[in-house]
Amino acid sequence: MFHCQNHFIITIIQKCILFAFLGQLLSCSQSAQESSLSPLQVARDGHHLEKKDGTPFFWMGDTAWGLFSNLDSLEVITYFDHRKKQKFNVIQCSVIHGGADRTNVYGETPFVDRDVTKPNEAFWQNVDHVVQQSLKKELYLAILPAWARTYIEPGKGNAEDKIFSANPSGSYTYGKFLGNRYKEYSNIVWVLGGDTQGTRDTIYDQMAKGIRDGAANEKINGALMTFHPKGGTYRPPATSSGEFYHEKDWLDFNMIQSGHRIGNRNFERIYEDYSRSPTKPTIDAEPCYEHHPAMHDYKHGEFFAHHLRRRGYWSVLAGGFGFTYGGSGIYQMSTKTRKGKDSHFKNYWHDALDYVGANDMKHLRALFESRPFVNPARIPDQSLVISPPDPIDIDKHIQAARAEDFSYIIAYFTSGASGKLRLKNAGQRTYKAWWYNPRDGKTYDGFGNESNLPFDEVNSDNVGIFDPPGSTHPDNDWALVLDDVASGYKKPGL
């Protein structure tokens, strides 16, 4: 009896602290108009994103599905601060993540009596706090209104949890509630779906319409909308929203989920999306997770930093406008009192913040932001690559892209194996050659010594044979950067 009463008192104290904190926060928080964070829009070329003023935007995302459910108000700030320092700029999260009765850390459910037309204000005040803190930290949020496999899809989970499939019109009402409540925020991207096939058109159409209508029938400050599909774990190389909803007017850009199978060639699906008509941007928004079990079982192996790096460089060079990282522990936001699946558990969220791959992502962002990708556009171009010795071996894969005007070429050597590039289509040019290290963001000469100078000059009328520093193994990936000497580009990276 004493234990139950004590727990009740602690819960009440937690809620009082939360509401006092939120009240203070709401009174002094910056509005969307006061924030320097610009709404995102699709760039004119149709393949990239940009800010409202036309500044190109490279999406460097982190996966934090359980953010709204599992972290308290102070933990949210700690998490945002850490990811900001690591140069992430987008956080993917699911506002309703779990069963219909799943509470947040303060014991609040999203709806009253499971009724999607009756939002529970106490729950949504905590959501407000997360959104406002992300704006303050100048982080974009890619928000799933609900995780579809739990709340929408029939045949998945408990039947009583299907609160949207049981009430399709409620999808519109809920969407309108979201659109109206968050229409003033410049840092939100809406993500429908949630690890599901695109088979519930009525629900998604209604939810999308509700979100837009909730913002006075306009895109919320230019807020973009997309769809998170089922993964490529059992359907390699990936599943894309483009397979289901590419021509929907609410779908501004595509997402793929390359999933949790070692060797999935996400570049194949990214390039397929890149080539679709009408032209829309695409991104690998859920690759494998660092320290997550392959095919959802550790007996099949485990993903490490190099798996995340290769998915990132492959997908961007294949035409993606950015990349979303994932780490076990972070995506589930596991705490000592709230863990995700035991079969997938590796670390609590605060212990997973500094996974090697998470810190490597800033180097990926730095490389691609150090070269223009809108004007001139970055073009995926595998015609530059002469097949490596064993094209079947994914560890020897080379993925390449170039500037539209051939002023630079970037080729990613997955495991340090040598390969050949064909440069003759570039015309008469001389290129400065750099080896960029995805593990530390520095440049090296051909012998593996750190250097601030190019390791060679290459004439475009030759077939270039390139041998990255070091031996061939999965953790020895390199990016070759060739800059036209006339371009004036500085050393790769920032």
Task: Provide the CATH top-level class of the largest domain.
Answer: Alpha Beta
What distance separates the N and C termini?
60 Å
Please indicate the percent range of residues in DSSP E strands (runs of 2 or more).
15-25%
Q: What's the overall geometry?
A: globular
Which spans have pLDDT < 50 for at least 5 consecutive residues? Answer: 1-13, 19-33
How big is the Rg? 23 Å
CATH architecture of the largest domain: Alpha-Beta Barrel
CATH superfamily of the largest domain: Glycosidases
The average pLDDT value, as a whole number, equals 89
Secondary structure tally, helices: 11
Query: Which fold name corresponds to the CATH topology of the largest domain?
Result: TIM Barrel
What number of domains?
2
Structural class: alpha/beta
Number of strands: 24
Largest sheet: 7 strands, antiparallel
Q: Tell me the helix content.
A: 25-40%
Write the layout of secondary structure elements.
Layout: H1 2-28, E1 40-42, E2 49-51, E3 56-57, E4 59-63, H2 67-70, H3 73-85, E5 90-94, E6 111-112, E7 115-119, H4 121-136, E8 140-144, H5 148-151, H6 168-181, E9 188-196, H7 201-214, E10 225-229, E11 239-240, H8 242-245, E12 254-257, H9 266-274, E13 282-284, H10 305-317, E14 322-325, H11 356-369, E15 378-380, E16 385-386, E17 398-403, E18 408-413, E19 419-422, E20 430-436, E21 443-444, E22 456-459, E23 463-466, E24 478-484
Helix pairs in contact: 1-4, 3-4, 6-7, 9-10, 10-11
Model description:
By secondary structure, the chain is α/β, with parallel strands linked by helices. The chain has 2 domains: 23-369, TIM Barrel (Alpha-Beta Barrel); 378-484, Sandwich (Immunoglobulin-like), CATH 2.60.40. The protein is 27% helix and 21% strand. It contains 11 helices and 24 strands. It has helices at residues 2-28, 67-70, 73-85, 121-136, 148-151, 168-181, 201-214, 242-245, 266-274, 305-317, 356-369, and strands at 40-42, 49-51, 56-57, 59-63, 90-94, 111-112, 115-119, 140-144, 188-196, 225-229, 239-240, 254-257, 282-284, 322-325, 378-380, 385-386, 398-403, 408-413, 419-422, 430-436, 443-444, 456-459, 463-466, 478-484. Strands 15, 17, 18, 20, 21, 22 and 24 form a 7-stranded antiparallel beta sheet that branches. Helix 6 packs parallel to helix 7 and helix 9 runs parallel beside helix 10 (305-317). The longest helix has 27 residues, at 2-28. The chain is globular. The relative contact order is 0.10.
